[in-house]
């Protein structure tokens, strides 16, 4: 039997009001609509629920039993739905976010600080891991969302760009490139390069740029952690290409960064599982990351290093 929630509510209202007309006024239906709804319910249950007289409506024994049980069930349903709404709207709980080391070190701290000020009851838990781990943790539901470097076509992910930034050249202050305002990518031909390994989401983009411009790369070191680039370059082992988010340079270093032309950018994206709703708390933190990305973009507008 297919009983509608409306039918059950109409019947309970009639049982309380002992009148079709008063019940109709209480729930905004005509008397005939109320009567028709009760008749349908009686037909579906196969028992008479009401005795109708010219003055009042009287519940049968079956009607009394059903009305009593339905009142409790409908009250419980109302409470359950209200509680579900509160859970969906609450700004509390734990939100797990994953990002690579560079993003975690240079973008996420501001996001956590912002979250702590605005949503003190939300625990922002960060997992800083390599890009591939971040993507897999999103896909497996181990985190609520992640911030990744453009992963390319991914039918199972919902992605949104929050920041586009250029790749820059890193070299010592006494390197010939240090005297230039900008350095063409072609000048990297045969230069000794220190690059991050393929655990980094940036490495495939750097490789693609070198290949597109037919540059023969002389890669002398591949390192896992972005912070290792700075001492390696300062030691004179080679030069490097790094994303702008890896700045600032270590204090007291003898390093400099230069624009690479033509400008090649990477896109940082918020990513979550496709067709899966974020909790209200997770959505709030998603918005904070989006806002911090916009703030960083605005702060770079006047800096010549980021001019296209």
TrEMBL record:
Q: Which family does it belong to?
A: Belongs to the LysR transcriptional regulatory family.
Q: Is Ribosomal protein tagged as a keyword?
A: no
GO cellular component, alphabetical, reads:
cytosol
Q: Which residues cross the membrane?
A: none
The protein's name in its UniProt record? LysR family transcriptional regulator
**What does the record give under GO molecular function?**
DNA binding; DNA-binding transcription factor activity
Record InterPro entries: HTH-type_LysR_regulators, LysR_HTH_N, LysR_subst-bd, WH-like_DNA-bd_sf, WH_DNA-bd_sf
Q: Keyword annotations for this protein? A: DNA-binding, Transcription, Transcription regulation
Residue span, HTH lysR-type domain: 1-60
* Alphabetical list of Gene3D superfamilies matching this protein: 3.40.190.290, Winged helix-like DNA-binding domain superfamily/Winged helix DNA-binding domain (1.10.10.10)
PROSITE patterns linked to this entry: HTH_LYSR (PS50931)
PANTHER family to which the protein is assigned, alphabetical: HTH-TYPE TRANSCRIPTIONAL REGULATOR YBHD (PTHR30419), LYSR FAMILY TRANSCRIPTIONAL REGULATOR (PTHR30419:SF14)
Q: Organism source for this protein?
A: Klebsiella variicola
């Amino acid at each position: 039997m297919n009983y509608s929630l409306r039918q059950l509510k109409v019947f309970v209202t009639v049982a309380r009001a002992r009148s079709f007309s008063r019940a109709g006024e209480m729930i905004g239906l005509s008397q005939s609509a109320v009567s028709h709804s009760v008749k349908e319910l009686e037909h579906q249950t196969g028992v008479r629920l009401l005795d109708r007289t010219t003055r009042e409506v009287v519940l049968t024994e079956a009607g009394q039993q059903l009305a009593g049980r339905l009142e409790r069930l409908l009250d419980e349903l109302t409470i359950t739905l209200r509680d579900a709404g509160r859970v969906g709207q609450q700004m509390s709980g734990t939100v797990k976010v994953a990002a690579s080391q560079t993003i975690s070190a240079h973008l996420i701290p501001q996001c956590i600080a912002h979250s702590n000020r605005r949503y003190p009851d939300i625990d922002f838990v960060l997992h800083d891991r390599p890009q591939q781990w971040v993507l897999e943790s999103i896909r497996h539901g181990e985190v609520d969302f992640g911030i990744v470097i453009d992963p390319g076509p991914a039918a199972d992910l919902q992605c949104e760009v929050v920041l586009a930034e250029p790749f820059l050249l890193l070299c010592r202050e006494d390197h010939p490139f240090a005297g230039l305002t900008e350095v063409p990518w072609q000048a990297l031909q045969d230069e000794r390069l220190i690059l991050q390994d393929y655990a980094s989401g940036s490495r495939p983009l750097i490789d693609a740029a070198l290949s597109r411009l037919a540059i023969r790369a002389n890669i002398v070191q591949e390192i896992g952690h972005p912070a290792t680039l700075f001492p390696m370059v300062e030691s004179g082992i080679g030069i490097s290409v790094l994303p702008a988010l890896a700045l600032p340079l270590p204090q007291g270093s003898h390093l400099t960064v230069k624009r690479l032309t033509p400008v090649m950018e990477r896109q940082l994206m918020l990513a979550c599982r496709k067709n899966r709703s974020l909790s209200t708390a997770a959505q709030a933190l998603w918005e904070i990351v989006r806002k911090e990305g916009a703030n960083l973009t605005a702060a770079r507008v006047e800096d010549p290093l980021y001019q296209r």
